[in-house]
Structure formats: C-alpha cells, structure tokens
Recover the amino acids of this structure.
C-alpha cells in the first residue's frame, strides 16, 4: 500500500484515518483497503421526513410524521374539536393532569351520574267534575217547585211532569239530529207525550197505553210528509223516544192517583235521590273498582254498594213512616229495587250519550246538564216503585 491512500479524501459514508498519516508506534486499527475498494462502500440512507408509503404502526420512523407525538414519553391525545381556537394545544398539559374537554367534545367514558329518585307526584285532589254550588242551588229550587205543586194541587204536579217530558223530548230529538242525522218528529212526540201523562192520571193504566199507541201512530203519519229516505230510522227513533220519556213518566202520574199519592211520589223521589247520593259519596271517597268502564268509567262497585245501602235504609224509613200500611222490611226490598233500577237507568243513558259522543243531553240546568240528565235514573225507576207499592199496599 502506498502513502497516497492515507491522504485520500474521505468518501461519503466512510470514516477513514486522518489526513495527517498514521501515528508512529500505534497498533493498526484493522485491515486497510485500497481506495478503489473504499469508493465502492454504500452510503448510509437518508431518512426522509415522511415515508413514501404507510409504515407499520410500531415503526420508529412514525415519530417523524406530523401526526405523531414529538417525544416517545408523550401520551397520544384525542383530536380536539375543529371549533376550538387554534391557540389551544393539548400537549401543553401534563400527562397526569385531567384534560379539559373543548367545546363540542363528547367524553369517551363519562362517569355515571348517581341514581336520584324522581320526585314524588303531588297528591291530586278528587274533583266532582261539576259545579257543586250551582248543582245544589238548582236541586233546591226544583225540590221547592215539586213539593209545592205536589202537596198543594195534584193537577199542578201533573203539569210539572208534562213540562219535564216535553223538554226531555226536545233535548233527545235535538241530540239525535245533531249527532246522527236522525229526524224524529218532535211535534207529535211532544203533543202525544203530554197527552200520555194526563191520560194516565185521568184514566189510569188503560189511558196511558191508548195514548202511547196513538202517539206512535202519529209519528208514523207525520214522517210521511217528508221524503222516504231515512224513514225507517226516523220513525224507529220516534217510537223509542215516546216509550223512553213520556210513557215511563206516566207511572209517576199513576202513583199520584192513590189516596196517599203525594207521599208515594215523594217516597219515589227520595229513594232515587238518596240512591244517587249514596253512589256518589261512597264512590268518590272509596271507589277503586270500575263497575262498567266501557259505558261509564266514573261508576264503581263501591258506589253501587253505597247506593244500595243508602236506598235500603231510606226505603225502610219511608215505608214505615210515610206510606199507609207500609212496613220497614218492605222498604228494604223497595230500596234495593230502586238502587238497581236507578243504576241501570244511569248506565242506559250513559250508553246513549256515549253513542252520540256527548257528555250531557243539554245545558238547561247549571251543574246538572239537561232535563234528561236528571230524568235518566227517575224514568226507569217509576214503573218499579209503582208496581212494588201496588203489591205491598195496593193501588189505594
């Protein structure tokens, strides 16, 4: 080897001896090579800033990527929301300090909130659903009119019955026409209904049946003056209205014909009102089991028990002290029958109103609705009381 090899300039990537030559007395560091051989040494590759292709996630060269952390001891932070100002840098926070969540960021593992029991609902006070003040006032006014006419002049009370029948027919036929398009003729019904009540008081049961038949015939004839479309449903509704309102009310006039007729009518009214009052009071306070939820959701079995109990006690007292030759045990039977018939009467009209899609038949009586809303339990109870009184003490 000549001396020129020591003075050869170092090649890129080759760490050769100094250009000052070998040190005297020093051991050789290793085998020497000729210059031509040193020129064939491969240069070390220069690591690019970014690889041309995606590397493995464990490759150390990933540290040179812009998306990776600058130092290995830094923890990877989730990307912050783009709406955060650019001055925000999550890497300025120490790794052991909880990071503040930027606006709009959703926490990855939010801590569960402690179970807080919902507040207890405030107790709701039961409501009667009507204006009790107006209802009581109207009830007292009707009682005064009934009692005054009943014990002063019996004929005046017959007039009260006839007026109630006519108004009830007007309410029923009006609701049928409004809600169902059924045109039951009101004129023959009103005239025949009033005549039915008077005939029952003057001629007895025979007069009531004759007046009923003539009223039905008048409805059939009256409806012939209009086109035939809907004739069958109109006359059917008319005959039903004649039986439901005036014919059943005629049994009140039949009770009035007896010697103690005023007391019989008063017993009939008292038992019906007491039955309704007992059903309302007990049902409102203790009612939990529905009696007929599809027909009348407000009625309960507890209310029925209250109606029976109140009516039986009132019946025993009335038969013992108001009815001639009456007995308390007869009053128990009478009260039980009145409670049953009054409840069925309420359910019957509730079925009619539910079919018509209305709450009340009218608005004539504040706090009560219409006349038919007060006659619903009275009408089917009248023939029951009349029949039982005839069986117990005679027609008198």
């Amino acid at each position: 080897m000549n001396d020129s090899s020591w003075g050869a300039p170092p090649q890129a990537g080759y760490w050769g001896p100094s250009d000052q030559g070998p040190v005297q007395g020093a051991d050789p560091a290793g085998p020497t090579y000729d210059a031509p051989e040193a020129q064939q040494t491969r240069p070390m590759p220069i690591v690019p800033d970014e690889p041309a292709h995606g590397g493995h996630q464990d490759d150390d060269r990933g540290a040179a990527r812009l998306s990776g952390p600058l130092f290995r001891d830094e923890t990877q932070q989730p990307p912050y929301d783009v709406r955060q100002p650019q001055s925000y840098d999550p890497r300025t926070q120490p790794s052991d300090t909880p990071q503040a969540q930027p606006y709009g960021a959703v926490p990855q593992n939010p801590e569960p909130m402690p179970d807080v029991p919902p507040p207890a609902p405030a107790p709701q006070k039961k409501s009667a659903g009507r204006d009790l003040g107006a209802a009581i006032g109207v009830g007292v006014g009707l009682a005064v009119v009934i009692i005054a006419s009943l014990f002063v002049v019996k004929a005046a009370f017959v007039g009260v019955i006839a007026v109630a029948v006519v108004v009830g027919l007007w309410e029923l036929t009006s609701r049928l026409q409004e809600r169902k398009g059924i045109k039951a003729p009101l004129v023959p019904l009103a005239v025949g209904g009033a005549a039915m009540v008077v005939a029952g008081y003057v001629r007895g049961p025979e007069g009531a049946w004759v007046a009923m038949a003539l009223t039905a015939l008048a409805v059939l004839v009256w409806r012939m003056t209009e086109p035939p479309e809907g004739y069958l449903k109109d006359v059917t509704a008319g005959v039903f209205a004649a039986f439901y309102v005036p014919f059943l009310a005629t049994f009140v006039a039949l009770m009035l014909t007896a010697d103690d007729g005023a007391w019989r009518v008063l017993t009939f009214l008292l038992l019906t009102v007491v039955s309704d009052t007992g059903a309302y009071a007990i049902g409102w306070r203790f009612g939990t089991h529905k009696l007929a939820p599809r027909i009348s959701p407000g009625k309960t079995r507890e209310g029925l028990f209250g109606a029976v109990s109140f009516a039986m006690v009132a019946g025993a007292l009335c038969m013992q002290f108001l009815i001639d030759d009456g007995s308390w045990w007869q009053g128990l039977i009478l009260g039980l029958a009145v409670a049953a018939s009054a409840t069925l009467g309420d359910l019957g009209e509730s079925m009619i109103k539910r079919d018509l899609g209305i709450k009340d038949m009218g608005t004539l009586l504040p706090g009560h609705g219409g006349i038919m809303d007060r006659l619903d339990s009275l009408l089917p109870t009248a023939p029951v009381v009349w029949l039982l009184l005839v069986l117990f003490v005679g027609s008198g």
Q: What stands out?
A: The beta strands are 290-292, 296-300. The two ends are 162 Å apart (CA to CA).
